What does this fold into?
Amino acid sequence: MKEQEIPYKQLEALGLDTRNLTQEDISKLLRNEKTEVRAFSIEYTKDREDFLKNENIKYNIREDGGKKKLEFEGRIAIEANYYAQNTPETIELLKKANIQYEQAPENEKLLKLKDALLVLAVLDNPLIGAAISIYYLAKVIPKRLEVKNDMGLSRSEIKQLKNGETIQHKNERNEIVLMQFDKATNSISSVKQTQINPPDEILGQKLTPQDKIHILMGETVQLKNGIQIQLNLLRSNGIEYKDSKGKEISFDVAKHAATQQNDQTISNNKHQMKV
It folds into this structure.
């Protein structure tokens, strides 16, 4: 995503003053990450208040220039939706790429593509990539008074989440869903396990199949070079990277650090050989 593709008008329609977005907010949105908690203010209507109340979203009513405003807080996320033209040629391409699709409910001439990871993997293909269009949708993850349990979680599972554990839960399609608790919004972050893809290698060190399993279980994997990898559903692709001091870094920075560290190791080895 490029900065000009961030749906600022959608965010303003949701009641956010986009002038208050920090550079870190923008950077996170560009990395497909959720922002820190931000304030929203929308014009009051009874229907809107009923919605906030029914959804157990924490809100206040404020007078502003003789007009009532509904104020609430939440994180911002940008959701990418992938579409393709509903033609026999495009359908054939999608089938060859094993990409699932359905007719877009809003437009019979479009197909809505289902597996975002597979779509991303084929975007560079000149034939398939040219047939795919991306639409970005702004979303708010609101701060709630109570956890919204719409996945049929048990009390024990909710307790595990609130204790900071990552849990695995099967949805109605029998797919494994990974879940974590977001204390800042009192909400549950979730993603299908198949959508999380730990790297094969980082800092010149390959991850073992066991390392990847530990990551998907919510455990921290620490490599010999000090980099820590952990599941974090607020982060891009659901994975968080930290250096040996526990400071969070991006995957690109980690890869760059790998080059520097490997170069330093080679230099040190050469020096030792000379001595």
Summary: The mean pLDDT is 86. Residues 17 and 230 are 33 Å apart (CA to CA). Residues 201-274 form one domain.
